[in-house]
Write a structure and sequence with these properties.
By secondary structure, this protein is an alpha+beta fold. The chain is built from 13 helices and nine strands. Strands 2, 3, 6, 7 and 8 form a five-stranded antiparallel sheet that branches. The chain has a four-stranded mixed sheet with strand order 1-4-5-9. A hairpin with a 2-residue loop joins strand 2 and strand 3. It binds flavin-adenine dinucleotide (FAD).
């Protein structure tokens, strides 16, 4: 495998890193102390700058207004943008819109593309993805209570969802609902586009998460769908194919998250090294960085960051080369390994900062609060571990150690 970063990508990454340092990191104190919606005017300006620099929507195809980067290239971009919590949003490659764009691009009708895909890629509107339910286990998503029942030329949707990230201020939701209860268990649900202005789409609240309700893009909605009527032409992809499409969306989505977490690791590690070098802890001028235990954390963090970077880029490369299905266990491996590493690195960075680490004077406490969710969404750690272990044991039984490690 060639690990060389192309000249084209070096230029792009230099431009992005400079932009993040000069334009976005200085905004973080405002981001930490104001509501997201108050930041929208300044974020709009930054988004315009990104468009002018032709770095907009890096992961989307050129034909629809993106940069057309492949998954490995976008992984590197995602790492650079992940150094700040507003990076992906400003470059219009943020979840859940990025995944929704992919689904609309692949499965949308011409009418759906014109109405939803075009303004989404332009950054004129936002969207959300509404699958997880309050009373059902998200870890086993085939257990859905939300239904979409046909009535004339419409669907009538009823259900109770939550963790519909970024629902506040979104133009539409892609809702997962049971349309074919008699079908086999993986073919019962469909994706349906529901404009948030539709009567019966009720945003109950932005759920308080780790002490913060958030607003607009930076929020997680609880939503009651109460006899919510939309035309059947809002069906996205074939009826009953909701899980098949969701699965397609998850592979690249996990690469994006993992590379974003690498960015979080890099930033936390950067702050940790700076503090270790600068914080004087003895009258004769010794710094924290002279202490063995801090040095061990620095060495361990550096090694772990290098390891997850290779694993994640390798998984992205596998997807590019052999497709999502062939790479599914690589994707599961990185999902739980990276999610745990990012927490270890943030925790060490926080500890090195002492009381300062607990404040919102640095970005570390924000990362500490928000990235805890890494081990829960897009498949909880345990679910990924169960799936790879099951496959490993089966492979071992059939082909011994080589087969087990080759899954
Ligand atoms: C910040 C954040 C953003 C999110 N954004 C979205 C979104 O935009 N749209 C959306 O639809 N959903 C979203 N979710 C929801 C997320 O997908 C679910 O929380 C996740 O799938 C887990 O489902 P659950 O919360 O119902 O937990 P459960 O399914 O109730 O599981 C609880 C815990 O049980 C354990 N567990 C589960 N199954 C097993 C098993 N087989 N073996 C061993 N242990 C197990 C795991 O530790 C798991 O964390 C988001 C969640 C968070 C935290």
């Amino acid at each position: 495998m060639d690990f060389e970063i192309s000249e084209k990508m070096k230029v792009i990454l230099d431009m992005i890193n400079e932009f993040v340092d000069k334009e976005l990191i200085p905004l973080e104190q405002e981001f930490l102390h104001k509501e997201f919606k108050e930041l929208l005017p300044v974020l709009r300006e930054k988004r315009e700058m990104v468009k002018q620099m032709e770095l907009w929507a890096p992961n989307q195809p050129k034909g629809i207004g993106g940069m057309g980067l492949d998954l490995v290239e976008h992984g590197l971009v995602s790492e650079a943008l992940g150094r700040t919590p507003i990076g992906h949003y400003v470059f219009n490659c943020q979840a859940p819109d990025a995944g929704n764009i992919e689904v609309l691009h692949k499965h949308g009708t011409d009418e759906q593309k014109e109405k939803y895909l075009v303004p989404l890629v332009n950054g004129d509107i936002r969207s959300c993805f509404s699958m997880t339910e309050v009373d059902m286990p998200g870890s086993n998503p085939i257990m859905l209570e939300t239904t979409a029942v046909k009535d004339g030329s419409d669907y009538i949707i009823n259900g109770h969802k939550w963790y519909t990230t970024s629902a506040d201020g979104a133009e539409f939701a892609i809702v997962m609902a049971v349309t074919n209860p008699e079908a086999s268990k993986y073919m019962q649900a469909s994706m349906i586009i529901v404009p948030t202005k539709t009567e019966g789409f009720n945003l109950v609240r932005n759920i308080p998460v780790m002490g913060h309700e958030g607003s607009d893009y930076s929020s997680h909605g609880e939503i009651l769908y109460q006899s919510c009527r939309v035309p059947q032409s809002n069906l996205l992809g074939p009826e009953g194919h909701g899980f098949v499409i969701a699965q397609e969306r998850l592979g690249p989505g996990r690469i994006h998250h993992c590379m974003r977490w690498l960015g979080v690791c890099n930033r936390s590690f950067d702050l940790m090294c700076k503090r270790a070098n600068e914080r004087v802890i003895t009258p004769d001028g010794k710094t924290l960085g002279t202490q063995q235990i801090i040095r061990a954390w620095i060495a361990e963090s550096a090694a772990e960051i290098k390891a997850i970077r290779l694993m994640t880029l390798n998984a992205a490369w596998q997807i590019e080369k052999h497709g999502d299905k062939a790479a599914r266990y690589d994707i599961s491996f990185i999902k739980f390994v990276v999610a745990n590493t990012v927490q270890k690195v943030i925790d060490r960075a926080l500890q090195v900062h002492g009381g300062l680490g607990m404040t919102d004077d640095t970005i570390i406490s924000y990362f500490y609060r928000h990235e805890r969710a890494a081990r829960i969404f897009d498949g909880a750690d345990e679910v990924h571990k169960m799936s790879v272990a099951k496959k490993i044991l089966r492979a071992h039984k059939e082909g011994g150690i080589r087969a087990a490690l080759d899954i």
